[in-house]
Amino acid sequence: LQAYTTRRADAIDVMLRYTPQLQPLGNDQVFLDVTGSLRMCGGLDALLERLRADLVEEIGILPAVGIAPNPLLARIANAVGSPMGINHLPCQPTREGLANLPVELLWVVETRHRERLRQMGVSTFGQLSCLASYLLVQEFGPIGKTMFEACRGRDETVLPLSLIHI
Fold first, then answer.
1. For 70-124, how does the pLDDT look when each residue is reduced to its tens digit (9 = 90+)?
2. Which residues lie below 8 Å from residue 138, measured CB to CB, with a gap of 6+?
């Protein structure tokens, strides 16, 4: 555990060279807002190439990278993309574009929520988006409002600009 913690801290040190705006989440995810660093690095492709090269050279990890306008969509880009690739979701997708994704991709949907949603006949973003906000809040409390927004691709929980999910 100590080795993992040290390695993660080293990886975050490398990421901090590219932006001070980062937020670790859980044990294996970091969200970076690189909007302010793009010009300095010569654009997104050059920034990603340099960041990944530094992580491989200094820490020995090749992370999967999800790029999107918010943390939820960056995680989705990684979930549906290549496990060790650069997965890009460049714009806010439409409600229809998210409709077939499983609700398990919503970070707020825990096991207990999944079971209740299943009982309600809900297994996809599209099915969830058909439910009224007040019904979700009534059933799940404040998380219901977050579910309502998230199934529409909206997530304002952390850094709101261009994000990389590593």
1. 778 888 888 887 777 777 775 667 777 888 989 988 877 888 888 999 999 999 9
2. 144
* Euclidean distance between CA atoms 20 and 13, whole angstroms: 10
State how far the Cα of 106 lies from the Cα of 113, in Å rounded to an integer.
Answer: 11
Q: 158 CB contacts (<8 Å, ≥6 apart)?
A: 23, 25, 31, 71
Q: What is the pLDDT of residues 14-68, one digit of tens each?
A: 989 988 888 777 667 788 888 888 888 898 889 888 988 998 898 887 777 777 7
**DSSP string for residues in the chain:** -HHHHHHHHHHHHHHHTT-S-EEEETTTEEEEE-GGGHHHHTSHHHHHHHHHHHHHHHH-----EEEESSHHHHHHHHHHS-TTSEEE--S---HHHHTTSBGGGSTT--HHHHHHHHHTT--BHHHHHTS-HHHHHHHHTHHHHHHHHHTTT---SS--SSEEE-
What token pair was written down for 145? 């409002």
Distances from the Cα of 44 to the Cα of 39, 65, 158, angstroms = 8, 12, 20
- In this prediction the pTM is 0.69
